[in-house]
Amino acid sequence: MGQELSTVRPQGCTHMKVRQISRLVGRYYDEAHGNATGLKSTQYALLSFVLKLGPLRPGDLAQAMRLDASTLSRNLQPLVAQGWVRLQPGDDARSRLVEITDTGRAVREQSQRAWKKAQLKVNAVLGPERVVALHELLDECIGLLEAAEDA
């Protein structure tokens, strides 16, 4: 059996579609976070990763979040300035570790309630079955794209 050619032809720009849904979904989270804590949803995510995985090297954090090093560095700056995370010396003179502070833990905990509210609202609007299917599709796509980069 030979491989059949697909008759499915995607229309439109995939990048634009992904950005559109990202912006629409992001509004729910940014609104909930901003109203509750003034924290951006991206800052909440960063605090959550540092809390869960830290203390850790910035490179390891960037990899876990699927960010490039310069984006992570730029996103860390306001959190360091607010005293929510700190950069500590690492194993040697050239390395550093990112660690959440007690203040950062408190802000993240307060913001977690806002995240939950946004999460429930998005689930209600889209429906739980669609959200589960979306997560599965996104995870599959992430895996395929990462494998293609590694090849």
From TrEMBL:
Protein name (Swiss-Prot/TrEMBL): MarR family winged helix-turn-helix transcriptional regulator
Domain HTH marR-type residues, every copy: 11-143
Transmembrane annotation, as ranges: none
Coiled coil, from the record: none
InterPro entries named among the record's database cross-references: HTH_MarR-typ, MarR/SlyA-like, WH-like_DNA-bd_sf, WH_DNA-bd_sf
Entries under SUPFAM superfamilies matching the protein: Winged helix' DNA-binding domain
